[in-house]
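Supplementary Methods. Inverse-folding protocol.

Structures were first reduced to a discrete structure-token string of length 77. This string, shown here, constituted the complete conditioning input.
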């Protein structure tokens, strides 16, 4: 997909935060499992941080240059 290749042009860092076992975090875990390799292959210098923490709601944080981070991760797929 084209969006994966253009991430590093605008995004400076991506952080995923989700629970290892919670059903609510299932879609986030599947997204990372399915897309991480392709994202890193197409954006080798883009930091992609994955944090697992018990009992948290899934979150995606994207950092754009000097602007503050913007949390965003929909509860649906």
């Amino acid at each position: 997909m084209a969006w994966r290749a253009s991430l590093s042009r605008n995004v400076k860092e991506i952080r995923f935060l989700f629970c290892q076992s919670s059903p609510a975090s299932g879609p986030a875990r599947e997204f990372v499992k399915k897309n991480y390799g392709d994202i890193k292959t197409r954006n080798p210098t883009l930091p992609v941080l994955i944090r697992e923490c018990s009992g948290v709601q899934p979150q995606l944080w994207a950092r754009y240059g000097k602007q503050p981070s913007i949390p965003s991760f929909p509860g649906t797929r």
